[in-house]
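Two folds, back to back.
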Amino acid sequence: MSSVDAWLGLQRYVLEMAPGLDAGERRTVVVSTVCLHLLRRPPGDSASPA
């Protein structure tokens, strides 16, 4: 799965789970999720997607 596919899938998931959010709020949720995921990676883990 490419990082673009993952990004689009996460956006679609947020849209389905919280349809009342506007585009800016959805973007904030998606970006926050990605940032938290990156912060929680163990030290030395590769930052590049598979």
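---
second:
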Amino acid sequence: MMAMLMLTSLLASVSVFELEDEWNEEAGGRAGYEVELLGTMEPRPSIADISGGIRNAVDVDEEINFLLVVLNSGTNPITELYISVDVTPTGTTTSVAGTGGSPDGAVCDDTSNNSQGNPVCASTSFAAGDYLAYGSYAVRNSLGDPLTWTPTVPGDYTVTIGLDPGEQDSDLTNNDLSFTVTVKDWYDISLDLTWDNDDPDDTGENTGTGPHDFTLSAMVDGSADWQPRNVDLEVTFGGSFALQDSMGGDASTFEGFGCPDPNECVFTARMGTPTNVEVYHNLSDESQPPPTPTNGSRDVPLYQVAETWGGTIKGNAADCAGACAMYVLARVVNYLSYELVATDYGGPGHEANIVNEMKEVNNSVDDRNANNEDLLNAAFGVYHDVSVTGVTVGTGHSPGGRLDAGNSALYAAISHSGSEDEVEYDWQVEFDLRDLGTNQVTTIGPVLDCDNALDPDAMMAHANLGMAFPALPEFTVCTPLILNPGMFSVTARITLIDASLTNTDVDPNGDDDCGTGSNSDCHVDMNSANDDRTGIYEVVNNGPFVTLTMEVADGPVMEGTSMDFSARALHTGQPDSNMDGEADAMMYDWSVNTEEQDIQFMSCAALSDCPAIMVNEFWQGTPTVSVTVTDHWGATSTDSVTLKVWNGFSNSFDGAADVDYDIVYYGTLPQWVNFTDADAVDADLTGLGSSFTSVAAFSTDVSAILSPGDVYSEDMDVSFAGAPDTQYSLWYQGTTGWVSMPSTQSQVEVGTMMLSWGN
């Protein structure tokens, strides 16, 4: 029998939606048009559970929406779907809520003739396989707003929901749903604790040791008049509160009374006033005359009339080490309700003997127990604290990110953060520089001031942290350093120290014994969470930039030419290691890419200038002179200049005409030119029919024909017997005939003339 009852209870507890949803999954293969009303998310059917209670009941004055689970289980989209809702007291046809004559156009077209008065269509199409509104469709009223029902009378109500898909449905048996919803009255005892001062927003939070006055309010409330009896409230003081004041009187009180127990401060309050009420009545006693009810005196509060109590709580500063708090807690402990109780007095193995009695029942909770207790908090404390409010790097005070390698500085902003303005703190700061690549930590400090020649505006001499001069409420400490390339974290950490360690105390015998309690100059920092700050930095070496210049006399660069080379390097991050105002010297490496190393550049090692370099026989062709600059961290920059080295050839010839010949040419092979006497020539040089006779003629023989680009210069002087009053010209026979060679005529000596030609 018990197993049967349990099974029945289980089935009764499963909602219609849950059962129909499982059934729907098995019917997912339907074709054509098919829409199903699977259930509701709100309201749910009210069901009696195994204990006699009602599941899914709703309270009087609770606003109810109509949230439906509708599935298009067919294969075609639905374009017309109207939903009607009607709520009636069970057993009647009187509608108290619903869509009335204007069904909700959940799926429709506003231009449709079947819109039935609803001004707005929620959707124009309902896709196959989808749940309407993702499984929670809110039914709307004729104005297009959510349809709601706010019951005002307790009882059972029948909720009827229907779908009208027009002709777009193949099974009309799953379009309607009807179930019962139970509306019940609700009963409540509410508590409210408030601070009388310093809490205008009623947060329940306060600060300071006080004393703080508070008020406790309690009220019987509900949807209908009811009269609980002997409503007992409990008020508890907790935390760091004071029992007595300096005069020995009660410091913390409730209704004027001090704590009843110094170890556990709990007060009791009772609502209501003594009232003679019925406390028992046997309704099953059939004796004649009927038995009269039993009356008694009970404390009965008035319905919806608040009752108040007052109290005071004071913080115990003498017993506070750091941040402290105290609280006031009020809660409903118990109350009596007068109820009809059916009791089987037959006992096991006997015939049932059920007696209906009106009797008092103990209760510790009500229908809305979230407001059966309330809490007030007050925080206070006397604590010592200094803090690091920021850590930055570089004169630009970067809080993190990318920085240039080189001379920089670490900065930490520190602050007086204690609760007492009159207390001063002496301090020191240490910086931890952690290489995130190797995890190696370098600790810098202690640092007591800000003395950085690169940032004179930030310089500050050491001073205590405090609110009264000469102490300072805030301070920026700094220390210079050279930042190497890499990823680093920079942590600034402050600690309280003995004032004798710095220039604020001239005692030479002081030592750092903070935290032991033996040094009056020290305090214990009670908040380590703000003692350090960390920034993450990517330090980048942008490296040097070098420019190579060359100075050489005008003319071709040939063997024997002397040249001066100079390198100018720029590097804004090259460090100044000794802080003398001059960046460390960079290294210079000189070279030329000849077949054999030129020892001339060895004399220029590490120097920015390399003068008087002489071109020698190894520099044939287009050698490149390079200089490489290396900075503090080994980063390099190279610049170079490529030279074109020219060769020279000279020859003289004594014949009918004397020839002096010079050529400057480019090439790695020797170039030679030879001359021989030639027969005299009679020829029409101009092609105009005129005849010219040579004074002297000679032939040339060369090792190679050079292109114009490979010839820097070519000069030839031809001397011969002649008179100055005669005009002479120089010609050569080319592939297309005789070609004039523009030349300058001069007299060498009496009887000797010279034609000079240059290219």
